[in-house]
Amino acid sequence: MSDLIDDSPTNATEFTVSELSGSIRRTVEDAFGYVRVRGEISGYRGPHSSGHAYFSLKDDKARIEAVIWKGVFSRLKHRPEEGLEVIATGKITTYPGSSKYQIVIEQIEPAGAGALMALIEERRRRLAAEGLFDEGRKQLLPFMPRVIGVVTSPTGAVIRDILHRLEDRFPVHVIVWPVRVQGETSGEEVAQAITGFNALAPGGPIARPELIIVARGGGSLEDLWGFNDEAVVRAAASSDIPLISAVGHETDWTLIDHAADRRAPTPTGAAEMAVPVKADLVAEVAGLAARLGSAQSRTLDRRREAVRSLARALPTLDSVLALPRQRLDRSAQGLGQALQLNTANRRRHFERQAARVTPVALVSALRDKRQRVRDRAARADRAQERRLDAWRARLDRHAAVLSAVPRRIADLQSRGRDRLKGLHHRADIALTQTLSQRRRGLDAQSRMLQSLSYHSVLGRGFAVIRDSGRAVLSRASQVDAGTLLAIEFADGEVAALTQSPGQPLSAPKKPPRPKRGEPGQGTLF
Known about the structure:
It contains 14 helices and 13 strands. Helix content is about 50%, strand content about 15%. It has about 525 residues and is α/β, with parallel strands linked by helices. It has a 5-stranded mixed barrel. The chain has a 5-stranded parallel beta sheet with strand order 7-6-8-9-10, sandwiched between helices. It has a 3-stranded antiparallel beta sheet with strand order 11-12-13, with no helix packed on it.
């Protein structure tokens, strides 16, 4: 009875897996077409290589999978971050591939101002740990920049306040990089503006700023959120140009304020930090010029008085020249007497020398000189004879050596002839041995060729069959009836004509002899 019940048909509708999954999906999407879900982001690792983002939303009791498509992700004002509590807006759907339900997020925002502050604080700690906020890496502002770059909205009151304050204090060349200071793309545009100013080449068509001011008026935390973007902070920290942050009012703090080289309470305050007051500088220069003039006058007066004092301490010209005049007068008085004494001394010296120069003394001196010359000539003669003897001995040695040269040449020729005869004999022996070896090798190669030649096979009763083109035939399938063949035996070749298989063998008919006077057919072989 139970078997009958089990085999009986039922009224339940039968679904395929795909149909059931599609029905569940339509039901869920119809029931939860638009929902707002509050939860903590979990498992977020950034966007996938496809551009989509996958993560989960959870609370203390449940968990739901979440996905943000690529097109929506690029338009989000607040990007998802791990551990952030958010309010996600979207629709619930299912994923048939794994029988899961998930929320497709179209908008995401932090769950209240507290969540934004917590996000800012977490981002601040992380960037500070990287050293982006260190005071040691911040640059000094230039005292008097010639070009200032301003990153702000070109239509707001901020740029007018900055230009007005610069005009009042110290007019300089200002370059404005227009950006959005509020909205989803504000952070990216501000970062690109800072990087763009740093990329300008000095001396290019667009002047490179010596100072950058990033400015915006006051607003709520959400309005100033773009200046908390990580890209903005990194661009400000890596800027080679000194940067002033002037975002919001004095009580407003953003992350760019920590990374900038200076923070201004207001955009007007940033303009005051950027340049000094021209009137104050002019007044200060005038005061310094007046002080310099008075200092120069006082210095000249002191130097003039010092010169007068030194002049009073110096002796007069007469007192300085008195002693030299006195010495000159005394020397002039004794000059005549000294000349007379010197002349007398010279005369006496000359007389003593003249007394020594007598004819006898001159003859004696000449005799000594002649004897000295004869001694030197005798020494020169002896030296010349010794040198000639040395040259004669050297020539005799060379002559003895040259006389032995013919005998040495004859000995060398005799030894050369003996060596040449020995080499000739050895060459004859080597040539005879080489020819014998080559002859034996040739005989061995000839025997090997004969053993490998097919002519030896023909001697054992085999034959080589060729067609009319002298090509060797090795298969019966290559031969047709009526084919003229050449058969090579060991002692010569014969011609043969093939016939069809099964046909009795018959001698080939001899061709009729041509009549006398008619040309004959001839033969192929």
